[in-house]
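Methods — Computational structure assignment.
A single polypeptide chain was analysed. Its primary sequence is given first, followed by the predicted tertiary structure written as structure tokens.
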Amino acid sequence: MSDVFVDETPPTDSDAPALPPVPSQKLSARRAAKLALWLPFVGLFILIVFAAGIGERNGGQHLVMWSIIVAVCWLVWIAGLALGIMALRRRKIEEGSKGVSGRAFVGISFNALFLGLTIWVAVCVAIMETDITRMRDKTATDEAAAARAKVGDGEALQKQLAAYADSAFVANVGELQKKYQMAGAALTNPPVLDVALMKSREELQTREEVIREYITASEDLRDFCDNSIEAYRQELLNHKLTPETREASLKTFVQKVQGKNPTIMALRKADVRRGEAMLKLLTLLEANWGKWEYGPKTDRLQFKETKLSDDYKHAYQELQDVSAEVVRLQAKAKKLNN
């Protein structure tokens, strides 16, 4: 049974002629800045297109192909970071470098953002896969041990049935966790709260739907955790255990989760509130489309009405508070699992 409840220095000018293998023309600061600005979106395009292709052809995600695609995207974004830094270093020594700083800074920011987000998602997926593998290994061990017992032995048969009930319960948890993780990953592809990418009201509505799916997945996981004891009891009933074995198995289960469940429930509820806070921000912007605009130079929203600005700041602070609570509860839940 599982305990699952649980952001080369460019060559110097020289009078000597260049050797044949080395190009004679340097990459200008302006061109490097432009490349740095476009490369984050090139990497994002690669990630979306090839990821969708894998799902259509193979019917699911494949670790090797996903690793290759993500590695290519990381290389693209790292190249974008390098080009942005190079552009900033050269802008003062080249003529015609107006606008280089802005493009370079924005390019560096987006490359770093996409790189950091995908690394975070990769870490989350790796943790999830490790937990699921651990659950499957434990379930397989229990089933193998029960299968070796004589079928005619009533006690061995009851243990085997209890192991099957455990396996079914763990499978239900794993399915809900998978949906939750996928919905969470969708929040970053593209980042739903990135105001720099909000170009139309329809796009805001699309992002709202992504957040609603995350809220639904969070609510499903929350409700399952809240009713975990009853759900486990039902699995024991489904597998026809004797009343004595059923009560003994249920007692063991309760002892394992009772110390962790309050923290897990608080985390699951905070996840739902975080999704609701994100949705509140977007619906506020969508309902007041045309009354605000994004300033690329300041990287801030500019509002035409003071009340709207105050409402946005209040909603944003709510999101910050609940996000901090989620981080705190995640750390506490991790300690309980160790």
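Note: Residues 1-24 have pLDDT under 50 and may be disordered.
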